[in-house]
Design a protein that fits this description.
Helix content is about 50%, strand content about 10%. It contains 20 helices and eleven strands. It has a four-stranded mixed beta sheet. Strands 3-11-8 form a three-stranded antiparallel beta sheet. A two-stranded antiparallel ribbon has the order 5-6. A hairpin with a 2-residue loop joins strand 5 and strand 6. Keywords: Heme, Iron, Metal-binding, Monooxygenase, Oxidoreductase. Its cofactor is heme.
Length: about 450
């Protein structure tokens, strides 16, 4: 009897407004609404939505492990959210579920392991050195620029060179802008609780279709060139192109190849670019940390460019980046939907509901993080998880759907930071408030305007 009563308990949460329930609050400010509800109601919160829908927010490591690992088959990607992504991303690793997802993952995984990853480092450093050259006129005049689009085109150049052996340096700005338009359109759709017919004309939809067409033309051209290549490079695109189903003998269609390449646009560069944006904002706000990283760089690298082999000695830089990911995880929420009724933390979780896990809030839980709002890279110097439970630190998710590109991100970002710091100091524009906004990823509200100065100028 007690187990039955426990199963029927409803999680606490806001009642919301008549008819529309909590919908308007979630649309208006998802980060703020989640944060306030968590602080008021605890680690498992129930939001009521129009149409008798329910949304659950989970901020507890054991409950997160339940969803992402122990009972993962019962918690596929949330179809409501996935459906909003599909017009842009299609059916790739990011949106797919079940056996199809894990088949695609098995094909992609070898591109993200071992010596292959270390081999990406020279291209990462070279691309950053090109950006350093481009920034010289800005630094000569100590100009202030929004570094968000700068990091976007750098990260896109790197991911295309390393994963697809393609130089997009001359087109990176246009491609990155197209991706941002597609993501902004998708974000708007994600926050609608009444979906409008896609045939209705709007400026946003027109811009989305134009941006998607630009990206499709680029990607399909890339696929066609690779199919004609008699000696293709052994990269992720070639692996997808040559993969063959063991049972049917079928290979991936151009549409499926397109969806996987676009998935890398979505998750393979924008997340890293945003983590770099937040990293430089934190360095500006914490000059003592910047001085310590510069001293470590001088000791390990001297006057030469950083390399992958330097990272084991750049311990404080790596700890700093882990703290960046704690405070500002680019993927700030993960959504799932149970196939069958379940119980989490003693509360009823009905089939078909939406379950949101928030790394952004989990990383700020005072039970697992001393001084959770404080900036303390030292917490990661002795522990890869900051000293807390494994599922309290989830910048790349956990379990079977752990981000396959996480190993690329933790190589790329420290190398980019190191190379830029060798030449410049980036300082936040006076009065700028570093505040995140709820987008597909964790963007800075109002950008990140920073003044670029030569290191020798800073040193006096």
């Amino acid at each position: 009897m007690s187990m039955m009563l426990s199963y029927r308990r409803e999680a606490p949460g806001p009642a919301g407004y008549p008819l529309v329930k909590s919908g308007p609050d979630l649309v208006r400010d998802l980060v703020g609404t989640f944060t306030r509800a968590w602080r008021r109601y605890g680690d498992l919160v129930r939001f009521q939505l129009p149409g008798n829908r329910q949304l659950f927010l989970i901020v507890d490591p054991d409950c997160i492990k339940h969803v992402l690992d122990d009972h993962q088959p019962n918690y596929p990607k949330d179809p409501l959210s996935v459906g909003k992504f599909e017009p842009w991303v299609g059916q790739g690793l990011f949106t797919s579920n079940g056996e199809f997802h894990f088949r695609q993952r098995r094909l992609a995984q070898p591109a993200f392991k071992g010596s292959r990853i270390a081999g990406f480092a020279p291209a990462m450093v070279d691309a950053t050195s090109e950006l350093v050259k481009e920034w010289k006129p800005l630094a000569d005049g100590a100009r202030t620029v929004d570094i968000t689009p700068e990091m976007m085109r750098l990260a896109l150049t790197i991911v295309m060179q390393t994963l697809f052996s393609t130089d997009v340096s001359t087109r990176a700005g246009d491609l990155a802008r197209a991706v941002r338009i597609c993501n902004a359109y998708t974000n708007t759709r994600l926050q609608r609780f009444v979906e409008l017919p896609e045939v209705l004309p709007s400026r946003a939809r027109r811009q989305f279709l134009e941006a998607r067409a630009l990206l499709d033309a680029f990607v399909y051209g890339l696929i066609a060139d690779r199919r004609r290549d008699g000696s293709p490079p052994d990269d992720l695109l070639t692996r997808f192109l040559t993969a063959q189903d063991q049972q049917t003998g079928h290979r991936m269609s151009d549409k499926q190849l397109r969806d996987e390449v676009v998935t890398m646009f979505l998750g393979g560069y924008e997340t890293t670019a945003l983590s770099l944006v937040w990293a430089f904002s934190l360095l500006s706000r914490h000059p003592g940390t910047e001085r310590r990283i510069r001293a470590e760089l001088a000791e390990v690298c001297g006057d030469r460019e950083p390399a992958a082999g330097d990272l084991p000695q750049l311990r404080y830089l790596r700890a700093f980046f882990q703290e960046v990911l704690r405070l500002y995880p680019s993927v700030w929420t993960l959504s799932r939907s149970p196939v069958e009724d379940d119980e989490i933390g003693g509360y009823r979780i009905p089939a078909g509901s939406q379950v949101f896990i928030s790394p952004y809030l989990m990383h700020r839980h005072p039970k697992y993080w001393p001084n959770p709002e404080g900036f303390r890279p030292e917490r990661f110097e002795q522990s890869a998880t900051g000293g807390g439970p494994l599922y309290a630190y989830i910048p790349f998710s956990r379990g079977p759907r752990l981000c396959p590109g996480s190993s690329v991100a933790v190589l790329e970002a420290p190398l980019v930071i190191a190379r830029i710091l060798q030449s410049y100091r980036l300082t936040l524009a006076p009065g700028h408030v570093c505040e995140p906004t709820s987008n597909v990823f964790l963007y800075p509200r109002d950008g990140m305007p920073m003044r670029i100065q030569h290191v020798r100028t800073v040193a006096g």
